[in-house]
Amino acid sequence: MKVAQKVAIVTGGGGGIGGALVARLAADGAKVVVADLDEAAARTVSEKVNAAHPGTTVSAGADVSDTAQISRLIALAESEFGPVDMYFANAGITGATGLDAGESDWDLSIDVNLRAHIRAAQLLVPQWLDRGEGYFVSTASAAGLLTQIGSATYSVTKHAAVGFAEWLNVTYGDRGIRVSCLCPMGVNTKLLYEGQESGDALGMAATRAVTAAGDVLEPDAVADVVLAAVEDERFLILPHKQVLEMYRHKGADYDRWLRGMRRYQQTLLGD
């Protein structure tokens, strides 16, 4: 799909990968609603992009795990630019570590990392089916294909996000709905370093695991990879090419892979 003249919503658009996606979409001729829980951050990104590409973006503060607030974003896009063509479900959180994560921790991670995608699709896919096309881009993680040392909430919800994106693709891919799923490893965003800054042993190990596994990419580089995949309508987006080889090793011998991950975790924890 060519993004020129398309109307897009980018969640988590106040910085990081989301902010880079907004800039790239606008540069390629799209109109974009920049959504973020941090309204000021969304506004800053929007103003910066509009300075380079006037009239291409508007911003809004929104909790995109809330169906009513997703509806508000869709209405904003329609009033400012027209019907939504593309939805980038990019907002995400790292979540608590270990089995001490409580019910509220699990609820928050499931709501932000998974249900936000489901709720957006429930609102948009029926419209897209009527129009004959639409594009849903899910930001998951390499943790959704492999796993995440430290945080069960992150690993489980990112696996679920990949699964939901797969289901959307299988169910609606022959009816004009395009679906892609982004699964990066380390990207130079605040999210990457939250574990390191937490002081929690598992959280610090999680950050070390990601930064040691491959290059830490800049958000702009990831956005370039995403938009190239969207143009080609490819499902799996892997900015870190080694993730595919890791995934193949996992599938080829699951028990061997699990043993290797346990040894790797022991190394990171200094056990």
Provide a short characterization of the protein structure:
With 271 residues, the chain is an alpha/beta fold.
Protein described:
The chain has 271 residues and is of the alpha/beta class. It has a single domain, classed as NAD(P)-binding Rossmann-like Domain (Rossmann fold), CATH 3.40.50.720. It has 10 helices and 7 strands. The chain has helices at 16-27, 39-52, 67-80, 103-131, 152-172, 194-198, 201-213, 219-232, 242-252, 254-269, and strands at residues 7-11, 31-36, 57-61, 86-89, 134-139, 177-182, 236-237. Strand 1, helix 1 and strand 2 (31-36) form a beta-alpha-beta unit. The protein starts with 6 loop residues before the first strand and ends with a helix. It comes from Rhodococcus tukisamuensis. This is NADP-dependent 3-hydroxy acid dehydrogenase YdfG. Belongs to the short-chain dehydrogenases/reductases (SDR) family.
Order of secondary-structure elements: EHEHEHEHEHEHHHEHH
Fourth CATH level, the homologous superfamily: NAD(P)-binding Rossmann-like Domain
CATH architecture: 3-Layer(aba) Sandwich
**Separation, N- and C-terminal Cα atoms:** 49 Å
- List the uncertain runs: none
Radius of gyration: 18 Å
Per CATH, what is the topology?
A: Rossmann fold
Largest sheet: 7 strands, parallel
Main-sheet strand order equals 3-2-1-4-5-6-7
Estimate what percentage of residues fall within beta strands: 5-15%
DSSP helix fraction: 40-55%
Count up the domains: 1
CATH class: Alpha Beta
Number of helices: 10
What structural category arises from helix and sheet content? alpha/beta
